[in-house]
Amino acid sequence: MINRINNEFNSRTQKLIHYPHITGIIFISLIVLCFIGDLLGDLSGRSAVFYWLFMLPVFFIITLINEKAKELQTGQSISHFLRSSLVYWLSASISILLILFLWHANDLSIKTATLAIHIIVAHTMFLIGTLAGLRFYLIGFFLFLTAAITTQFEGPFGATILVAVPIILFGFYYEKPKISHQNN
Fold first, then answer.
1. Which range marks the domain in which residue 166 is found?
2. 41 in a domain, yes or no?
3. Quick check: is 1 in a domain?
4. In which band, very low, low, confident or very high, does the pLDDT at 124 lie, cut at 50, 70 and 90?
5. 56-91 pLDDT tens trace
6. Which of 52, 103, 129, 167 is deepest in the core (most CB within 10 A)?
7. How distant, in Å, are the alpha carbons of 46, 88, 132 from that of 102?
8. Which DSSP string do the residues of 5-36 spell out, in sequence order?
9. How far is CA 80 from the centre of its chain?
10. What is the rounded distance in angstroms from the CA atom of residue 156 to the CA atom of residue 164?
11. Residue 70: how many CB atoms within 10 A of its CB?
12. Which residue has better confidence, 176 or 152?
């Protein structure tokens, strides 16, 4: 099954992953998706719950595209990454489903359910960072910080922008391509 998913994924993403700045675009795209989720959490708890639920497969696919691009650059297989990330995202989906059951049974308020799902996504992105690199750690860390700002300070959406700027700068600075100079 993993090989079939990998083959299908390969055929659909070949053109996209050859783009030279794809990992930077992925990093910014994930930050923007996190902003949208945070904004929805401030506006409407119900829509934020479903947003984070529907973002799980999107985040999974984006991480796969990122790793496929790295595979083409380095030549290392992503089969281990595929198996591990599938387990991480499946466990996140099951956790979110259980949160939805608790919300449906009126054991959790909509705000609490939204924050719990937000934290599950943050945790999963942080775990993906163990496999995919620093930028995914940073995205998980960013999601943890936005959840903390929301719970402790009930911070407005603008506060997350202040948190995001140093994370984005660090992500681009640290992950910039290393240029080797050869003396001939």
1. 22-174
2. yes
3. no
4. very high
5. 888 888 888 888 777 777 777 788 888 888 899 999
6. 52
7. 14, 21, 32
8. HHHHHHHHHHHHHTSTTHHHHHHHHHHHHHHH
9. 18
10. 14
11. 18
12. 152
Asked if the structure places residue 88 within a domain, the reply is: yes
Element (H, E) at 137: helix 134-148
The pair phi, psi for residue 137, each rounded to 5°, is: -60, -45
Domain count, the chain: 1
Structure tokens at 135: 């930028």
Residue 179 has pLDDT above 50, yes or no: no
Tokens of 100: 């939805």
Global pTM reads 0.77
- Percent helix, percent strand, percent coil in the chain, to nearest 5: 85, 0, 15
Residue 32 within any structural domain of the chain: yes
Q: What are phi and psi of 84, to 5 degrees?
A: -65, -45
